[in-house]
Amino acid sequence: MPRVTSADVARESGFSRTTVSYVLNATPGVVITETTRQRVLETAERLGYTPSAAARTLRSGRSDLVLLVLPDWTVGPVIDALIDHLTAALAEHGLSVLVHVNRSGRPLAALWRAVTPCVVLGLGPFAEADARAMKQAGIPVAGTALDEDPHPEIFAVPQASIGALQVAHLVERGHRVLAYAAPSDDRLAAFADRRLAGVRAQCAELGLPAPLVERVSLDVESASAAVAAWRSGDDPVTAVAAYNDEVALAVLAGVRAHGLAIPADVAVIGVDDIPAARVAAPALTTVWQAIDAQADYLAATVLAALDGSSEPPARTADVFHVVARAST
C-alpha cells in the first residue's frame, strides 16, 4: 500500500497543500483558524498520515536517527543486550537507533550522508578520515574503544584487564598451570587477542608458566581435543580462562567428555555472565561486564552532543568483576 502523503490529506480535506503543510508542520507565524486546523488533523488521522522522515530532516536539518556502526563482529548476547538497552534509553528521548554492521565494505560516508543521522556511534574505532568528515559535516561522533586511553568521547573497555582478572581469580583458587581457550572465529580477534595478552601478562607477573592456548569451536569435539592437549604434558593444566561464556560452556563439555571433575580436575572461568552461565552444570564462574552502564554512557553521550554540552557523562567505576560460581 502506498504511503499517505500530505497531498492526499489536502485532497481529502479540501484545503490547499500549503494550508495542510502549515498545519501538519505546526509552522510558526502563520494564522490558521481552529476549525481548519482540526479538520486537517482529523483527516490526517483518518487516512493514517505519518510525516516523512526525509522531509522532517530537510526542515530541521537533523533527523532523529542515531547511527550505530558495528565492526564485522559476531553479534551475540552481549552486543544484543547493549543494543537493546541503548535503543530503550534513546527511545525515551524520541530517538531511534539504526544499526549498521560494517561487512559489505560500503563506504561509511555513503551511509551517513544518505540517512543524515543526528549522531554516529561506533562500537569500534572509526578511520581518521571518516571521523573527520562526519565532524566537518556537523555530525557528533562517539563510541567505544578497546583498551585505548580514555577520551571524553570514548568509553574505553579494558579487555586486557579482563584477562588479567581471570588469571588472578584462578591463582587465588590455587592453580598454577593455566590454559586459554580462544574463539575459533577470526572476527573476534580484536577482543580475544587483548584478553589473551592480559592473561599472558598476568601469568608472567606472577611467575607462572605461559598459558597453553587452544582455539575452541562451540562443539564438544573441538573442546575435547583442546582438553586432551592441555592435559597431556608432565604438568597438566588445572584451570582454563575462556574467551567468553559460550567458549567456556564448550570447555565444560570437553572436560566432562574426558571423565574429569569440575573444578577438582579442571576449573573454568568465562566472560560476560550470560544467562546460560547460571544454569550450566556446574554453574559457570565468569567476569561480569557493565553492559548496561556502557549503554547508558553512550546514550548520555548522544544526548549531551544534541544539547551542545561539552561535559562528558559520568562513567561507572565498576566496569567488570568476577562472579564466582561452582566451576572454579
TrEMBL record:
Pfam families: LacI (PF00356), Peripla_BP_3 (PF13377). The keyword Transcription applies. SUPFAM superfamilies: lambda repressor-like DNA-binding domains, Periplasmic binding protein-like I. It comes from the Bacteria. Gene3D superfamilies: 3.40.50.2300, lambda repressor-like DNA-binding domains (1.10.260.40). GO terms for molecular function: DNA-binding transcription factor activity; transcription cis-regulatory region binding. InterPro entries: HTH_LacI (IPR000843), LacI/GalR-like_sensor (IPR046335), Lambda_DNA-bd_dom_sf (IPR010982), Peripla_BP_I (IPR028082). Keywords: DNA-binding, Transcription, Transcription regulation. The keyword DNA-binding applies. Residues 4-60 form the HTH lacI-type domain. This is LacI family transcriptional regulator.
